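Tokens as discussed.
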């Protein structure tokens, strides 16, 4: 499995982001939240992913950037859970929603649980 997070997988389209916030569904596993919406993608891409950490919880950009890096890394290492179990193409937004400073291991465990919960929700 290719464990990369290439530029083609990064969610940058304003229209897709607006669609996520207006029509997206979400699954949560405290303190993480995944908002998703089926989208039409060109080429062989299957996923578009963006990450977000609230300024409300982390005032300093250094702290927000650290947690965004951790979220991207946990996504990169566990995205096979999403790719193997979904037929449709999705746009995702991945949120860190607490002021608690979890360790990398805790965030990684929660990410795996969140992705499994997402897979279960789309199978229904």
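Sequence:
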């Amino acid at each position: 499995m290719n464990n990369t997070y290439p530029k083609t997988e990064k969610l940058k389209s304003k229209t897709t982001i607006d669609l996520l916030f207006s029509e997206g569904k979400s699954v949560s596993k405290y303190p993480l939240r995944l908002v998703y919406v089926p989208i039409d993608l060109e080429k062989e891409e299957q996923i578009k992913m963006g990450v977000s950490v609230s300024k409300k919880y982390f005032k300093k950009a250094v702290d927000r950037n650290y947690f965004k890096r951790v979220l991207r890394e946990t996504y990169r290492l566990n995205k096979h859970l999403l790719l193997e179990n979904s037929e449709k193409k999705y746009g995702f937004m991945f949120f860190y929603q607490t002021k608690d400073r979890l360790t990398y291991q805790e965030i990684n465990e929660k990410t795996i649980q969140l992705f499994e919960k997402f897979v279960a929700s789309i199978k229904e």
